[in-house]
Design goal:
The complex is a heterodimer of chains A (about 180) and B (about 140). Helix content of chain A is about 65%, strand content about 0%. Chain A is an all-alpha fold. Classes of the chains: A mainly alpha (about 180), B mainly alpha (about 140).
């Protein structure tokens, strides 16, 4: 059972993720996490001002349960199923990140500079988190899905639009890491 | 009630997979966009391979859902601009925050409270899209 406490290899995680998609398919639902942001806006009353959020969000209750579960899963995995939090990334990555001032690379699960409690007292870290979130929320709704909805569900159903979206994900991600990171870090 | 538990349980397993595979780690996303490890590609690729095979099996054998109904797959609407532009915008955010939507919830559960700022941003971004929707090319 020791392996459970170690980081899980891709050939365990990938097939299990496919299993999540199939579990939802057999429950007559489509795997897609980002739709919950729209639901949350609707619950907050955004439908009174913007028509896009004027829908019966109760039909999306199942999806809120899935992300509620994901939150519990994160709590359980981090607190009871892990003996170390270090993410063993490639050594070349560690030295690049150290040059960026992210010295927790190789020792932590997330960069402590951005995701530790000290981030709340640092304007630059807060701005990175907020802008990152804005782009995620805007982009996923514009594209009609995220990694789960397009890269897993959509491509599994051989949807060409999902391929376009995934190509877009990579253009955006590569531009951020290679063109914009050297400017902001 | 039974359905509620099934959705919740599916989410819990999903959250554990995302955390334990490190797909919820900012570092893994950075590494992926630097092509320095097979890890993330292996996760997405193997999920996809099994996904394609499974969906075909469901369609060809006309398998029924747990509730005995026919399984319907909805096709995505045809468009270029919304998928490409929306995809690029999401990709920028995915790399910057190092989290796609699923891991945002996983990481909050794992106790990384600054991720709440990412969630706030994502809700604002979604709202902004709703506001501007009619003005954007789709």
């Amino acid at each position: 059972m020791e392996w459970i406490l170690e980081p899980w290899p891709w050939y365990v995680a990938g097939p299990l993720l496919a299993g999540i998609m199939f579990a939802l398919i057999f429950l007559e639902k489509q795997f897609g996490v980002s739709a919950n942001f729209r639901t949350m806006c609707a619950i907050g009353g955004a439908g009174k001002k913007v028509k896009f959020f004027d829908f019966d969000w109760r039909a999306q209750r199942w999806n809120l349960l899935v992300v509620g579960g994901a939150l519990i899963g994160g709590l359980v995995a981090a607190n009871f199923m892990s003996n170390s939090t270090a993410v063993d990334i490639a050594p070349e990555m560690v030295s690049i990140l150290e040059n960026y001032g992210l010295n927790s690379a190789g020792d932590a699960y997330l960069p402590t500079e951005l995701f530790g409690m000290e981030a709340f007292g640092d304007i630059k870290s807060l701005a990175i988190l907020l802008v990152g979130g804005l782009l995620i929320g805007f982009g996923t709704r514009y594209a009609g899905g995220c990694t789960s909805g397009h890269a897993i569900s959509g491509l599994s159903n051989l949807q060409f639009p999902s391929l376009l979206a995934v190509i877009g994900f990579f253009i955006g991600g590569l531009a951020m890491v290679h063109l914009i990171f050297p400017l902001i870090f | 009630m039974k359905k509620t538990l099934l959705y919740l349980l599916t989410g819990i397993v999903f959250g554990i997979i995302m955390y334990k595979s490190e797909a919820a780690s900012w570092f893994r996303i950075f590494e992926m966009f630097n092509f320095q490890s097979f890890h993330m590609y292996g996760i997405i690729g193997s999920a996809l391979l099994l996904g394609v095979i499974g969906v075909q099996l469901i369609k060809r054998n006309k398998l029924k859902s747990f509730f005995g109904k026919n399984i319907q797959f909805t096709s995505k609407n045809k468009s270029f601009s919304r998928y490409m532009y929306g995809g690029i915008i999401f990709g920028l955010g995915w790399a910057l925050a190092g989290a796609c939507p699923g891991p945002i919830f996983v990481l909050i559960g794992a106790g990384f409270l600054p991720v709440l700022v990412v969630l706030l941003g994502a809700l604002l971004g979604t709202y902004l899209y709703g506001l501007l929707r009619d003005k954007l090319p789709h």
